[in-house]
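REQUEST FORM: STRUCTURE PREDICTION
Request ID: SP-0412
Submitted by: Lab K.M.
Chain count: 1
Length (residues): 121
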Amino acid sequence: MAKTEVSRRSGPASAPSERRAIARSAQLDAVIHERARLGIVSALAANERLSFVELKSLLNATDGNISAHARKLEEAGYITAHKRFEGRVPRTEYELTSAGREALERYVEHMEALIRVARGR
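STATUS: Completed
RESULT:
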């Protein structure tokens, strides 16, 4: 998009200041921004807890995918894993932490602001 197009579509007076605020704000959270991790965090935001199998099914992902992305989210402090055995079968359940919920809220607010600017509102 040419620079002149941006100025023609800038919209109301608040749009330029909103664009500046977005530019000054932190970049999108790279931990959450990855598609699979965003899916995990979003699913956990809508559910108190989900098992490994439930997440795998919801996201149509492989065991390795869920494991790797859940580990990254755990390392960031966004989710916790609760591991136990049911008989001889391991069962892992995940839960969103308060830090994870706050990170998701910031991420969504940032995306909403980008959308408003892109629409010229």
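NOTES: The first strand starts at residue 50 and ends at 51.
Reviewed by: T.R.
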